[in-house]
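Hi Q.,

Before the meeting this afternoon, I wanted you to have the AR6 prediction in hand. No need to reply - just skim if you have a minute. The sequence and ligand are here:
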Amino acid sequence: MPSTQVQWNNCTVEVWQGDITTLAVDAIVNAANPWLAGGGGVDGAIHRRGGPVILQECQAIIRQRGNKPLEAGEAVITTGGQLPARYVIHTVGPVYREWTPQQAAERLAACYRNSLALLRQQGLRSIAFPGISTGAYGYPPEEACPIAVRTVREQLLTHNACDRLIFCTFSERDYQLYSLELTRQN
Ligand code: AR6
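Predicted structure with the ligand bound:
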């Protein structure tokens, strides 16, 4: 399937369908939970394929924060363990039903913004995002997708943040949704 691509500030932004744990980019983003404890969905897949070192690093981060969980919108980074990606950026999306739509949108945007800020701070140049919050956390994909694309676009135009950015979609429906939105916002 031909993938949809746009260029924003020298960054190639593309939509891809498949398992994020197979991508050999500098960093993949994990849709984590506040305790970075691992779980199902993309989180489970990343820990399974990356091996136990990722959980050890996550636990160390939580300890360093004085055993405080992450808030929705925050992001932290670990190595990628056995993954083809060098690093994993763990971000906690909002649980959709716990916020007003406006608050949820702000937290979701913060996930993308803070993940890209970490990427820049580490001097990394390629990244893949899953549809944060759109699985177990219940964010409707058709609401989350325009927020994800808009936030990424704003950040790339402001910061020249990276060379390659992938929206990694799991379902055919999400692939179509992101492809359309990328074209729409281009
Ligand atoms: N590659 C790419 N995308 C995936 C993969 C994969 N291997 N697996 C699932 N997705 P979710 P959330 C898509 O539930 O909603 C965990 O238990 C999936 O189709 O993984 O942020 C955590 O520990 C969906 O579009 O994340 C938290 O407790 C998207 O990834 C909680 O779930 C996100 O679905 C986080 O929930």
